[in-house]
Records
---
Amino acid sequence: MTPHPKLSISGLNKSFRNRAVKVLSDINLEVADNEFVSLVGASGCGKSTLLAIIAGLQESDNGDVLVDGAPISGPGIDRGVVFQSYTLLPWLTAQQNVEFALRETRYDPKEIADIARHHLDLVKLSRFADSFPSQLSGGMKQRVAIARALSYRPKILLMDEPFGALDALTRGQMQELLMQIWQEHKLTVIFVTHDVSEAVYLSDRIFVMGLNPGRVKETIPVSFARPRTGDEGHDPELRELQARVLRSIRQETSGQDVY
């Protein structure tokens, strides 16, 4: 794909229960700098486990995970992570939650405050900087989580179904916001979702994962020009692309109620 991928995974395997249950088998993929890719597949195919390994939150049994050619060795500020649950500290304000992520960086306290304010502005939450999580809607909490993940300038943004708990309108707004941030700040994004239409709308490529064990079954490019407006859903080529992704997933789940 590219001689110098931002992320490179080769020969990765992961098992649970003393290796009795194989979750991921021979994962091989590359992601380019500034590329937006999605991982889709049936429940239980290992999407979130793979993301956790890239984040350094879990170890693989074997295989290599390289960022800019260097192996990862646990969590690091080169990778920002956003989960479906907002994981905000309830006793801190939005501003303080973002500042908390910067506490181990080289920035001095004034710089930290300025960086936090800038990233809250980036996600359009400046007016709510002094609000606590209990005073924010679900979409606003997720925007704080995104601001926090971006605040330390990661090379890769890892997102595990970040909009899955939101209503349809808020979800659409968050997708548009993410696209704006990605296009303006040239991030590499790896996005886990169950929503095929979301994956098609957001991605440059889609990795369809197979089941039992989890593996990269198919890589599907999304060739629609950017910026995307959301109106492409009426395009027959886009509908066929969504159908292709769904067919690929359903081939794995025939006779199983897992998706």
---
Amino acid sequence: MKGTTEIIFDKLVYSCAFEKYRGYEEFIPEHFLGFQLSGETHAFSAGGNTVIKENSIVLVKRNQLIRTIKYPNKDGKYQFLSITLDNETLRQYAMENRIVLENKTESKHKLFFETDDFLYAYFLSLSPYINKTKETTPKLANLKIREALELILQSNPGLKNILFDFAEPYKIDLEEFMNQNYMFNVSVEAFARLTGRSVSGFKRDFAKVFHTTPKKWLKERRLDEAMYLIKQKKEKPADFYLDLGFENLSHFYYAFKQKFGITTTEI
């Protein structure tokens, strides 16, 4: 078994693995707070690469693309626990507590916390739900999310400017964004949302910029990068095809031959 992901309750997700495991590309639509119980998570995004070490707590911001590789510890176990800070709960909390945002400051795409006694104890308090020794209810799940918010703001009050910023992504430069994120194998809907557009608006603007469809452009862009990696970097397709957004190796070989008229071994 490579790895499993289990939804314990509505907003609590537990991941476990016993060997190196590559996760799928993920569109992160909402903030979440995560705790690395054991092993390491290597996360890759357009904003940079991050290693989440054992016993680290991390706040991951919404509206971004992330690819992960999960590494078990020396005892052969990987465990990661995350709780989603959903917009509905955040809005309700902001209204009840009269949250007022200050001037926004730029922040990294991931934010780490010191593993203090309060945050550590919080995640330990979730273990009965993982072990199925305690049942939860929607009301209790909501309380656990609110408890997480209290601890985050206690640890770093300035994070209210991130957590309670409900503005949708503004319309950004499409060409720059796509050239930074073409390797993520996600839906057109995700690309549209991340660039601040509706799906129809995204396709319309895409055609104006690239003079083709997103599907065709993504395929061509990934294959051009594959040619560069093989020819200039001397890399093998088996080592990078997933990193370029191809779902399987046979599909990559077929698409490569179709575009360039030669196989990768003929280069």
---
Amino acid sequence: MSEIKSVAIAGASGTLGPHVLKALIDAKFQVKILTRSKKPGEFDAGVDVVEVDFTSVESLTAALKGIDAVVSTVAGMAIKTQTVLIDAATVAGVKRFIPSEYGSVTTNPKVEAFPLYENVFQIKHHLQEKANSGQLTWTVLACGAFLEFLFAAGAAGLLDFADRKATLFDEGDNRLSSTSLATAGKAIAGILKNSEATKNRVVKVSEVILTQNQLLKIAEGLRPEDKWEISKVAASAVLKEGLVEFSAGDFSFPVISKIIKGTGFAGETYGSAYDETDNELLEVKELTEEDLKKIVAEKLA
């Protein structure tokens, strides 16, 4: 039986947050949402929503009294500000903290010095210091790239299904684990239901391991009459370009995307495919070939 009964969520209105909220409610946890400002109708009337100052340990500590676990799903620049939330959780007596990470290669030491990744490593180090002193336990969920992002419209995903274009990283055979937003939410609930087995460690889940050539083959099988425009690029070159542009002060999404793709789409270089997972523990079902065909068919329509 899990010792976690009550959970606070930071970032519940973001990309992953709503899926975490639903999963926690479905799993019968008592849920409290931490927000900068309440917006009428943003959440169901039965959900406990509390306004907090995320820069204040005192404000957050008051909101976290009686809470067993904190799940953070904050994004972007807010990642590095989680230290305040962690400090408040420690003071309030919170037992478990799940930081906002949910990445593909974010646990690989090779990326620690890269922009975007350095903040998540700082948060992990901060959590480990709390764990070493017995003040708090933590779990990091590594779930690979979100499935919805990999199938995003246009050139943002693994393939550009709409325009029938494929920019293959290296030779197109680099493997990448992926999990849907809804399943990631359920995995977080599973972590808290199995609090002892998931204590102070990275938990990995993967609904499917994908390659660009695999998806291209499925697409060509479904629509053999379509002609694909195929090009190739070295993942290392994309990463290098992104790092140079970022260091020159360009923090735009295209530059950030280059760093993410240059690492996440690089296959074994940074360990983006999880051959060993905690799927069974967290009751994560893997997608079948037929599941993938259905997803690709929808994108080709």
---
Amino acid sequence: MQAIGKVGLFGAAGAAGQIIAAALSAAGRDYRVVGRSRAPLEAAFGHDPHAEIVTWNPDEPASISAAAAGLQTVIYLVGVPYDRFAEHPPLMEKTLAGVTAAGVERLILIGTVYPYGRARGNPISEDHPREPHTFKGKMRLEQEKLVLAAHGRASGSGRLSTLVLRLPDFYGPGIERSLINGVFEAAARGKRAQMIGPVDVPHEFIYLPDIGPVVETLTRTADAYGRWWHLAGTGTITQREVARQAYALAGREPKLMVAGKTMLRMLGLFNPLMRELVEMNYLMTEPVVLDDTALMKLIGPVRKTSYEDGIRRCFDAARKAASASAGTQRDSATTA
């Protein structure tokens, strides 16, 4: 039986990295977190005796190899700004060269639904064509192709095994980059939620803390490599229903301001991020819903948080943050 080696999280400081690290720590496994700056890594992982903190420069081959030295598995979570998606393929190419030079045995890319383009009927399984019609989808597809083409490449004294784990949109307590995080914050503060519409189309979200145990399992499941897999949420829900439940927990009626594609275009004249959201708005009108039957057959059933429980946890976290912020403001006013 092959020994379970050390895992490295490249691009670890984000929400997914912290969640996967928590699952590794809960399993009693040592892991390495890798990022450009030490301070956010110290803040997120400095308390965990299982964590080793390493900084890197992903533009320097020697730095990549040094960050990967001694690792059995690399989990790739490196993000780029939404208006710089062209950086994804060259960053992945450099990382693959560095990890193979370091003798890494396995690499997992946490992926998205972008490479599929428009769904030909939901839910979709892994054999759905990858035909992206957006620039971001094409860049993510090129990134994936590099990862999968590297499967079987010589790495140290062995061979590199690779896989892609594809996720839908995500949400979770305090996860600012979630499409719906602002709903929980607005409900907790009694303010109007700003949402990207349409909000009445069923959409799939995954409760991000649920992915940690799945990824930990995949790091030690040799049969999983050489392909891509889906990890789905618990069905679909509309954004309006998310808002209804969140505001109900606050004892309030929902207050929403919804920006559709036309408004995004207008806002994009002044805000680069809004401009970048326009081409991906098809996912709001023509959502992609994942079928993860294949993954469940491989690793068995996994725990998935219901929307009701997930929304409640997100609201509770937002309410706690709002109370802490209000307390800080009161203290500042008192000492002023």
